[in-house]
Amino acid sequence: MKTGARALGLAESYVGEAGRSTLAGAVVRADRVVDDFRFSACTIGGTDATETAIDCWDALDRPDVRYVLVAGVALAWYNVLDLDQLHDATDRPVLAVSFEASGGLEDAIREAFDGDAATARLAAYRALPERRAVDVDDDTVYVRSVGCDDPARVVRAFTPEGGRPEPLRVAREAARAADRYRRNPEA
């Protein structure tokens, strides 16, 4: 992959105060150069994560971005992403990357929600593509992808060291910084 290839990394941070979680979008090149940021917020325990991610994409207006990477599939307390909808809206390959082995989220969703809220989240979760392990250096990440023929190649190209792709690492740090500022703008 060329060093100038760009990916949008989307990651969230929640400090537990306002019922909203900060979503940061970071455009990062494969050679680690950071090009742009956008911020938005989605509802804790809501169903608006996909729309919020699409809003970040639209606000960036960056046709040079080739991939969309998302940190996980259940942002902001089981606000489950629709990766197909995100792919359709961006017309880019979408890769959701998680960093721990897991038996899945179905039991946790059932414990956290009842009735229609649980049913909707379980349906969204079950509609996601299968998760596949990808070895990156000495680490393993787990990737779900839509519209990408070789997700392992993309993840490795944007992971210069360690096990976290750089667009996701930068987006996570940006979301955390935005939350810290929101909590205490005078600091």
TrEMBL record:
Compositional bias segments (type: Basic and acidic residues): 163-187
InterPro entries in the record: Endo_dU
Disordered as annotated region, ranges: 160-187
HAMAP family recorded: UPF0215
PANTHER family noted in UniProt: UPF0215 PROTEIN MJ1150 (PTHR39518:SF2)
Family under the similarity heading: Belongs to the UPF0215 family.
Entry protein name: UPF0215 protein GCM10009066_27220
Organism: Halarchaeum salinum
Biological classification of the source: Archaea, Methanobacteriati, Methanobacteriota, Stenosarchaea group, Halobacteria
